[in-house]
Amino acid sequence: MKLLTYILSGEKKIGLINKSGKIVDISGIVKTNDMNVLIERYSELKVELELCSERNHSADINLSDVTLLAPIPETRRNIFCVGKNYYAHAEEFGNSGYDSSAAAGNVPSHPIIFTKPSTSISGPGDSIDSTLDPYNTIDYEAELAVVLGKKGRVKESDDPMSYVFGYTLVNDLTSRHLQKQHSQWILGKGIDGFCPMGPVIITADEFGHPSEQKIVCTVNGEKRQEASISDLIFNIPELIKTIGQNITLLPGDVIATGTPAGVGLGFNPPKYLSKGDEVTVSMREIGELTNTIV
User: Fold this and answer.
1) Which of 183, 192, 274, 258 is nearest to 225 (CA)?
2) What's the half-sphere exposure (Cβ side, CA atoms, 13 Å) at 66?
3) Percent helix, strand and coil across the chain, each rounded to 5?
4) Structural contact between residues 234 and 85, judged by C-beta atoms closer than 8 angstroms
5) Phi, psi at residue 17, to the nearest 5°?
6) Contacts of 89 (CB under 8 A, 6+ apart)
7) How much is the pTM?
8) Is CB count within 10 Å lower at the N or C end of the chain?
């Protein structure tokens, strides 16, 4: 099932994409326009939502008639993010001279976890304000994000994948100058609007096994990143367990799993983003997340 948040006639709503590729408004079924609540109540609503996904009704809405928001426009807390989680990217970043974190070096021995505040979230088609990085060092990072659906701490005997609700895409936009200057990454990566998310959440049952998916990033149509999710250093179960063993996970939590090689910093000279650049993160099952730098 593909779930989304959108604006129609000035109203924020949540919906799903039916078998005809149109939007079914499910705000009334969930009794809210908050995707966090839908995720929290999904098990009790699933049968009714599945019936909606099979219908073809004159009231269904064309995607072209709405403005898409991030599927979770406001997460309840910071987004969990993972640094240097593909081998080739760990090497390109470790050798860049910008890796001033406590985990400086190439391949990490344990997952590197940082966060981006909820105010960094932006949606498909949103413009990214380049003036928030006056150093002209905005970089792109295409990532698969895991959306969690269950509350709890992850015990040794638990299946970490049982916490997964679904998947979406994020672009972990970064001011490389601020990332280096402050050593800890939140100031370089937590800038307002610097976490485009979307276009939809696809539920885990429809997505299939993450390792079978590929993520791609283009800038102005030029392919910069392409990798299989199977290439992660620390896979999704490991990430969920690492974060959830001491922190209570919540429905609606988002874990961005890391970016592959090919970021702008990895070129010589670096290929940072400039005004007018169009960046697209894509994955076959989820779709395309496109934003323009202004």
Assistant:
1) 258
2) 26
3) 25, 30, 40
4) yes
5) -95, 120
6) 258, 259, 260, 261, 262, 263, 266
7) 0.95
8) C
In 3D space, the residue among 136, 142, 143 whose CA is nearest the CA of residue 219 turns out to be 142
Give the CATH class of 79-293. alpha beta
Q: Is 224 exposed, middle or buried (0-12, 13-18, 19+ CB in 10 A)?
A: buried
| Percent residues over pLDDT 90 in the chain | 87
Calpha distance 176→272 (Å, rounded): 9
Q: Looking at the predicted structure, is the pLDDT value of residue 170 above 90? A: yes
For range 19-46, the mean pLDDT: 97
Residue 260's Cβ-side half-sphere holds a number of Cα atoms within 13 Å equal to 17
pLDDT averaged over every residue in the chain: 94
DSSP count for the chain of H helices, then E strands: 7, 18
| 255-to-149, 175, 229, 243 alpha-carbon distances in Å | 12, 20, 14, 9
Whether 161 and 239 have beta carbons less than 8 Å apart is answered as no
Query: Computed over its alpha carbons, how large is the radius of gyration of the chain?
Result: 18
CA-based nearest residue to 145, from 210, 97, 86: 210
Contact (CB, 8 A) for 188 and 120: no
- One-letter amino acid at 238 equals E
| DSSP per-residue codes, 38-57 | HHHHHHHHHHHHHHHHH---
CA 53, CA 19: separation in Å to the nearest integer?
6
Residue type, position 293, single letter: I
**For residues 277 and 38, what is the distance between their CA atoms, to the nearest angstrom?**
35
d(CA 145, CA 141): 12
Quickly list DSSP for 54-74: H---TT-B-GGGSEEPPSSSS
